[in-house]
Design a protein that fits this description.
By secondary structure, this protein is mostly helical. It has helices spanning 16-32, 52-69, 86-95, 100-104, 107-114, 121-135, 149-165, 207-215, 233-239, 244-256, 261-275, 277-287, 290-319; strands at residues 2-7, 35-40, 77-80, 141-144, 175-178. 54% of the residues lie in helices and 7% in strands. The strands form two sheets. The protein has a three-stranded parallel sheet. It starts with a strand and ends with a helix. The mean pLDDT is 96. Bound molecules: adenosine-5'-diphosphate (ADP) and tryptophan.
Length: 323
């Protein structure tokens, strides 16, 4: 089984949603499967990030978050998407078996047009580049959050269409792995936690910044003595860091009344800092050694490229391209 997934570099630190929704499973899967590839989707970030310096910084930050979270270059191939430009060629090959209607139904494109935004071709073609990411390495299993499921279905569709059009088996049809426990993590305002909503709790940031985020979790104005809804955002976030027995006890205390949100937030802050403290140390280790991180990504790219070459050759041959 070959596992593959990617993360778009669009910020300074991944957040709790990214960790519990994706990264944690990446780490578990690298141990369970013989081959795992995890990359930083810097080509994909081009639809939103237009500053080259920022892109480099965000890319390095994802690499640091990967390593901090426990992705291990001995067990998984870690690389930067743009180090394998062959992915752009496969994107082109796939575009001509991709119906316009399929891309018009893509959530990200639909959301942007619904908001009346000027959509560029990069955003429209985003699912094709993502399909190429997956198909170029003959990935069998793609761990993603629920929000990416549609992209994997499109990927399967494109692979089938290509194989059918050229009567070949050049591409492997991947399976999505919708991550267990990846119920949507709520942000501080109660919506889905997302960079684009500005409601995130970062995994790694200054203690004060994390504190500010946790203390800013919205709550109702019920006084301490009143019973509380154990499904309120603050409890859902707290639950991420608690054992089942602790969760049951907390829910009981909430329902009974006499529990203040402030107490829960303080405890949550401690748990967040404690949970990520070892990872934070690992992150600091790599942060002070950027050449080491660069070497890991370059070695990863070499291995990834060796996997990609025969797949792309197979596609070119099937389609009658090249000499
Ligand atoms: P953002 O919404 O902050 O831009 P991304 O879209 O870059 O995050 O998400 C990267 C990965 O993290 C995806 O696999 C996605 O499914 C997962 N993810 C992001 N936010 C959440 C969340 N709030 N809950 C669960 N998983 C999430
Ligand atoms: N689109 C994914 C996201 O926004 C990132 C991504 C790019 C990806 N290429 C991929 C994920 C290939 C899995 C496989 O989260």
């Amino acid at each position: 089984m070959r596992v593959l997934s990617g993360t778009k570099p669009t910020g300074d630190s991944l957040h709790l949603g990214n960790y519990f929704g994706a990264l944690r499973q990446f780490v578990a899967l690298q141990a369970e499967h013989e081959e795992a590839l995890y990359f930083i989707a810097d080509y994909h970030s081009m639809t939103t990030v237009r500053d080259p310096k920022l892109r480099r910084r965000y890319t390095l930050n994802v690499a640091l978050d990967y390593l901090a979270a426990g992705l291990d270059p001995e067990k998984a191939i870690l690389f930067r998407q743009s180090d394998i430009p062959e992915v752009c060629e496969l994107t082109w090959l796939l575009t001509s078996v991709t119906p316009m209607g399929m891309l018009e139904r893509a959530h990200a494109y639909k959301a942007a047009t619904d908001r009346g935004e000027n959509v560029d071709h990069g955003l429209f073609t985003y699912p094709v580049l993502m399909a190429a990411d997956i198909l170029l390495y003959h990935a069998d299993l793609v761990p993603v959050g629920q929000d990416q499921k549609q992209h994997i279905e499109m990927t399967r569709d494109m692979a089938q269409r290509f194989n059918h059009a050229y009567d070949c088996e050049a591409l492997v049809i991947p399976e999505p792995y919708i991550m267990k426990d990846s119920a949507t993590v709520l942000g501080t305002d109660g919506q889905k936690m997302s960079k684009s909503y500005g409601n995130t709790i970062p995994m790694f940031a200054g203690k004060n910044q994390i504190k500010k985020a946790v203390m800013g979790i919205v709550t109702d104005s019920n006084p301490v003595e009143e019973p509380k809804d154990p499904d309120a955002t603050v409890f859902q976030l707290w639950n991420l860091f608690a054992e089942p027995e602790e969760r049951r006890a907390m829910a009981e205390r909430a329902r009974a009344g006499g529990l203040g949100y402030g107490e829960v937030k303080k405890d949550l802050l401690e748990r967040v800092l404690d949970f990520f403290s070892e990872m934070r140390q690992r992150r600091e280790h790599f942060e002070s050694r950027p050449e080491e991180v660069e070497a890991i990504l370059c070695q990863g790219a070499e291995k990834a490229r060796a996997m990609a070459a025969p797949v792309l050759d197979g596609c070119r041959l099937a389609a009658g391209l090249g000499s």
